[in-house]
Write a structure and sequence with these properties.
Helix content is 37%, strand content 18%. The chain is an alpha/beta fold. Helix 4 links the parallel strand 4 and strand 5. Helix 1 packs across helix 7. The longest helix is centred in the middle third of the chain and has 20 residues. The termini are far apart.
């Protein structure tokens, strides 16, 4: 039975902070396009910076998505006060918005935000070095009890759309296929390096995070490159958007000149395998299109909790076995 007609339902995404989150939002929107009269995305974090390709934003706009500043959320809700809403969140409710539209919300979606979706709360507090003080505990308990209230009030209408089932870590096939279809529909960048017989190295901002020295980083990359070339392949570097301190080209490494997500590239163009540290892309490379995904520091206990160890062991391979 249809709850509302199309013209009265709005899909609204809050604090979408990365390209992955944006494409997850688009996966919901495009898979259920006939259900929505309009769609809005609140800009936040990375999405407001150069880390998101303009062609991604253009693609979304051409599909009917309107972007707005998070500070303008009240006017969005007020101007559509008679409309029904589907809300899209990453890992937490926008409490004020939910309370304001309590009786106008049809569904609430929580989208996959990456590997932190599968981490325990205890581990997230540890790696983010969250200070536990009075303010932390006060906010925690207020949000905890509000969340319980929402779980009861919206019973049957809260939907968690993840790439992996949290019980057995099996890939959610329907969501995966819809996500891949969205990536395939994004218009290609006109100019970027296309190579065959490539092993892609997905880098991370190790220098920027003071986790390694430049000398050790170059030594590690040189060792990886030699091992890849010994197999008859070429090593291609996909830089992390936050990297700026290490000059790969002047140190003898070839960089993939591609402005989009790694996931978009590997869906559209064949590679031999992926090499990375523990990351979302490491998991999705294998889960999306069955590309072998090799992990550096496979048994890194600092960045993984027990849940993530199970997940990575299911979809990734230690680099030593390359």
């Amino acid at each position: 039975m249809e709850i509302c007609n199309k013209e009265k339902i709005i899909l609204l995404g809050f604090s979408i902070i990365s390209p992955l989150h944006l494409m997850n939002f688009m996966t919901i929107y495009m898979a259920n396009r006939d259900s929505y009269g309009s769609a809005y995305v609140g800009l936040s974090g990375f999405l407001k910076s150069r880390n998101v390709p303009e062609r991604y934003l253009d693609f979304c706009r051409k599909q009917g998505v309107t972007f707005f500043e998070i500070s303008d959320i009240d006017s969005i809700l007020l101007n559509n006060k008679k409309m029904k809403f589907d809300f899209v969140f990453i890992n937490a409710y926008a409490f004020k918005a939910v309370l304001k539209k309590l009786y106008n919300i049809r569904n609430i979606y929580f989208i996959d935000e990456g590997i932190s979706t599968y981490s325990t709360k205890k581990h997230l507090i540890k790696i983010n070095k969250i200070e536990k003080n009075f303010v932390y505990y006060r906010n925690y308990f207020v949000k905890f009890f509000l969340s319980i209230f929402f779980e009861i009030f919206f019973f049957g209408r809260i939907k968690k759309l993840n790439f992996f089932n949290k019980e057995d870590y099996i890939v959610n096939i329907d969501f995966k296929n819809a996500f891949v279809n969205v990536l395939k529909r994004i218009p290609d960048e006109e100019r970027f390096l296309k190579k065959e017989n490539v092993v892609l190295y997905c880098s991370q901002p190790f220098l920027e995070l003071n986790k390694v020295s430049e000398i050790d980083l170059k030594k590690s990359l040189t060792s990886i490159k030699s091992k890849v070339e010994d197999k008859g392949y070429s090593l291609l570097i996909k830089k992390h958007p936050a990297e700026h301190m290490f000059d790969y080209e002047s140190n003898g490494f070839e960089v993939l000149e591609f402005d989009g997500m790694l996931e978009e590239y590997i869906v559209k163009y064949p590679i031999i395998s992926l090499i990375s540290k523990n990351s979302t892309s490491s998991l999705l490379a294998n889960a999306l299109i069955n590309i072998p995904s090799y992990i550096l520091d496979y048994n890194d206990s600092e960045s993984l909790d027990e849940n993530l160890k199970v997940l990575f062991s299911k979809y990734c391979i230690p680099f030593e076995l390359f």
